[in-house]
Prior knowledge:
alpha/beta; Arc Repressor Mutant, subunit A; D-Maltodextrin-Binding Protein, domain 2; 3 domains; two-stranded antiparallel ribbon; 9 helices; elongated
Amino acid sequence: MLCGTTSAAASEMNVSQPAISRLISDLEYSLGFALFDRRKGRLKPTPEALEFFGAVEESFLGFDKLEHLAEQIRTKQPKQLKISCTPSLASSLLPLVLLEHRKYHPDERVIIYTDNIAPLITRLQSNSIDIGIGLELPDLIGINSEHIGSARFVFAAHTDHPLAKKTVIRPEDLAGETVLSVISDKQPNYWNKISESLESVGSTLKRTIDIDAAHTGYAMIAAGMAVGVIEPFSARVWE
């Protein structure tokens, strides 16, 4: 899976190439499905092999985690809670949650990784964190997920902007305004819904600022450079 050829795997494991080939054949017979397609001297993993390899990796990572826990118990180290959280929630929801958590676990060490969705998912799948917190995380095999709430997106503008005085903002109110966009390859699924709601006035909007994080968007808004329909969690930092 990692070496690409039986000869490279044999060299890595310090055994003969025929021994590697025999081990693969024995494992395929035991599992009841092929692990590799043989193409021009190289081994290409089958879809079944990739799925099985993922489960094997999870098992080994689980053992690593148990070893780490044993080390903590043996040396009487404080317990650790490792969290990966998206930036907007890390600066709004997470401090409130951890403040309550600290009441019950005052000596626990908390390690926080501030990640966008892709690295957050990678950490979850590699079993390197205990909890991942984000907006609209996808369903992941082997990961327990829980929906903890919903929130409406908000319209944000500089306090001196004329639209800031309106109690209701309609799509047509944004005509001619510089409205924040999300970088195309960073767009989360929920951004599509916002784009759809602005479709009727899309041609009249100025799309000259693209962002990949809500805090950056609020910074642009605070500077008076744009307005935006944006997630509400980061707003409290900029109020």
